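Running this now, will post back.
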Amino acid sequence: MLYKIEEKEDLFEKLEPVEFRDFSSFGKLEKDLENLIANSILDVLFEDAKLMPIFQERQWQPEADIYALNEYGELVIFELKRASADKDAVQQALRYAQNAGQWSYQKLEQKLKAYSNNKNSLVEAHREAFGLEHALEPKEVNNKQHLLVIGSAADESLISSVDYWKRSGISIDFLPYRVYELAGEKFFEFFALPYDKHKNPAEVKGVLFDTNRSWDESSIWSMMENSRLEAYGDAKRFVNQVHVGDIVFFSHKSMGVVAAAKVKGEVQAPDNETHYRDVEFLTPIPKKNDKKLIAMPFSEVSSKTGKNFFWARTIKVPYLTKSEALSLVEELNLFLSTNK
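Update: finished.
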């Protein structure tokens, strides 16, 4: 809940609840909420609880809204309600879970390929996404299901129903969302489990950022030669998720981290397909005519930071704190100097 602080003579005197709304208040559909959640499930909403989206519902099909895998290959099922959710949403989610729990590995793989155009097998896509040393065995996938019901508010029947199934050993939770309209702008409030550990955007953070090698081998040189952090097409929005002062690490697919820089410029959009920010490099800048592109392997990045990153997307969550990022810069400079 959001509260306005009422001040009197420079004292914080009392709290006034701010009215919140839901998607239906703005004439938006449940599909609009689904797409917003699906597009932000990894990079924003669940930055500390990594998930790999594999499928969204199809129109007129008895399916949940979003299906994802966690690091252990367990299926996470999202049932979304654009307005308030009641106990019927729980019953609906349970039916979907019962059905999805019987899906074979082959069926899940087919759904992933239809959803993402990923040519890899499901276990290989999962291994790459979570940076695992070894891929899961197909038989290890979908051995357990978790249910998440998301809605604008919960009535007593929903809360009682969720609590009942929790006591019965079912992995189920309710996550509320709220929309606020303040000064003509709309704000989305969301609390991820198990605790709301979203990092304060005002704090300097370290971000592993992809060089887009999968789509364009030359994009890295545009970034290095122009001292920029760039993203393209559908991924261009990720440039908005780093801020001035943040430390970015350039992650080159199948190789590792090749450079680090400090963000110093606001978002620029030279064309409809590109967003970028100017940066100041903190490590040697790779040159296109170098005989060899030196990179700190991803396994070593994980070892140095003590974190397992989700490698499948443009931004590799989790983020690093400022001190963690500065420490990694030191390690990267040492690595690059001793391997040149």
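The two ends are 53 Å apart (CA to CA). More later if anyone needs it.
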